[in-house]
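Section 3.1: Structural characterization of target chains.
Under the original work plan, the team committed to producing a structural model for every single-chain target entering the pipeline before any wet-lab resources were allocated. The record below documents one such target. The sequence was received from the expression subgroup and is listed exactly as submitted; it comprises 148 residues.
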Amino acid sequence: MIRAVRERRRRQVSDLSPISVVALVFIEQDGKILLAKQNYGNRYWSLPGGKMEPGEPIDETARREVKEETGLDIRVGRVVGLYSKPRADGLAVCFAGEVVGGTLHPDNEISQCGYFPYDDLSGPARKHMQQRIADFRSDLPYAVVRTQ
């Protein structure tokens, strides 16, 4: 009986389309936003963050990815937004974060990282970045849900 239930669950899970979930973090200091320049693809400037690994809680993904990319230790705060990306079979979860330790320096996936004024974001960024920044700056008491 237990074996049959496990097999049925395994088949149900394997029938699901894989979804890529990423955690991204807004970190603000002195009215500026922390951005990281990717060292791959189109070399976009982005919020620090990355893919959730199997079995990993999403808040731990946020802490791990920010540490890996920037060298900073953070406290994960409110959820800013959930951004569905149907064309990429993805979901981005954006958090507000606060630095609690570490030293700012890029890793091998990131060529540069630093704090930038909101009205002077450095270099190319994905089109949806401005909407996410506006959502963060609106400081709503709830998370927004958007398709991008």
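The radius of gyration is 17 Å.
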